[in-house]
Amino acid sequence: MSDDDVPAEPNRPSWSTGRGAVLTVALIVGISPFATDMYIPALPAIARDLGATTAEVQLSLTAFLVAFAVGQIVIGPISDGRGRRRILLGGTVLFALASLACAVAPDAATLVVARVAQGLGGAAGSVAARAMVGDSTTGVARSRLFATPAAINAGGPVVAPLVGGVVLSVSSWRATVVGLAGRGAALPWAAARRLPEALVGPEPGAGSLLASLRRMGSLLAMPRFRWYLVTGCAATIGFFSYIATSSFVFQQQYGFGEGLYTLVFASNASCMIASTLLFRRLVGRFAEDHLFTVGLVTCTVGSALVLAGALTGVGPALIWPALALVTAGWGWVIPGSITLTQALGHRAPGTAAALAGGLQFGLGGAATPLAGALGGTAVVMGALMLGFIAAGLAVQVWASSRGGTPAT
Q1: What residues contact residue 192 under an 8 Å CB cut-off, 6+ apart?
Q2: How many CB atoms lie within 10 A of CB 377?
Q3: Per-residue pLDDT tens digits for 40-65
Q4: Over the stretch 188-199, which tens digit does the pLDDT of each residue have?
Q5: d(CA 247, CA 275)
Q6: Burial of 372 by CB count in 10 Å (0-12 exposed, 13-18 middle, 19+ buried)?
Q7: Are 172 and 2 in contact (CB under 8 A)?
């Protein structure tokens, strides 16, 4: 695809990529992991407290993820025309207020509505923050900078469930959501200090709906970009089957307490931290496309072992380490997907971030009730993980074999 087929590249700003700015971006992009992983250990407690079914409580998780996805798809292209900073600040404020609404929800329906608002606020902050990185860097430096927040955010699945588990041991699930509100309240202040506007000289009319749709169409017209989206969406649905179902599998099917399940989730996520840090070191030595494929292979093998552990009756003795293998592979899939789509979409980074993040989280979130509807067992979890992640791997291998130009 020629350069004429994508929107003109904005002027590069002199945007700080110092530690304070990178950490702030990482915390804002990490809104979603915290809003899901700190919440997951409390799902059974929420169901009991609100008198809701498993599927109804999982719907509150789905509501956040779908709102987070739709928000990115709508807001990302707008940020390419109107700038990042105001969108980022407004989104983080909305996230904090919606978190407080979740904490006082009297029933499942109110909780779902509040989670929708929470997802929209998180989406605005996250997509604008990722676009700031795309505005400011190129090449290997951009890949490593994207990998740095990914490595920091990989700590979210470790810290968040641990914090959630501790809070649950001394208080109710509502206190965990109050903690999210406190985290959200600190983000606008940090962003106002550390993150100046990164989009310099947007074209007149670039923020219109027509211009936004044109940018989206230009990116979707790129075959390799489309295949990266398909691969990422399929793999994300598989991974979210683990996110949404594992608490019920370990606590209800295998009898783990909240504290022990938190240890399972945190230890698995520790593997993602290590693998994401390794990805950052390997970027530049190996093509991101190859690292992305290796990550998908690792996730597929781990998913097959999860299913084997469930079918053979071995149970947690195999499923726990198998999930660690999946999360280790995911530590390459996430930064690989981000860097590849952002590299191809570097002339409209907000739109690229919106399509990749929005579609992946949207489809992943929409599929979260599927495992519960099918019974929420270890076999169901393993089968969905393997089916979707293997499908993503197949698409990636097929697209690579066609000789499409990978992002660099």
Answers
A1: 89
A2: 16
A3: 777 788 888 888 887 788 788 878 87
A4: 888 888 777 766
A5: 23
A6: buried
A7: no
Cα of first residue to Cα of last residue in the chain, in angstroms, is 14
- Confidence at residue 260, expressed as pLDDT on a 0 to 100 scale: 87
Name the amino acid, one letter, at 2: S
Cα torsion through 386, 392, 396, 399, rounded to 10:
130
Q: What is the pTM of this model?
A: 0.75
Q: Tell whether the torsion through CA atoms of 340, 346, 348 and 350 is positive or negative.
A: positive
Instruction: Band the pLDDT of 347: cuts 50, 70, 90.
Output: confident
Q: Is the pLDDT of residue 391 over 60?
A: yes
Place of tokens 């698409």: 395
- Whether the Cβ atoms of residue 68 and residue 361 lie closer than 8 Å to each other: yes
CA 98 – CA 115 distance, rounded (Å): 7
Give the side-chain half-sphere CA count within 13 A for 139.
4
The span from the CA of 344 to the CA of 338, in Å, is: 10
What phi, psi does 51 have (nearest 5°)? 65, 40
Instruction: Please identify which residue in the block is written with the tokens 């989280």.
Output: 361
Asked whether the predicted pLDDT for residue 12 surpasses 50, the reply is no
Distance CA 320, CA 309 (A): 9
Cβ-based neighbour number of residue 139 at 10 Å: 11
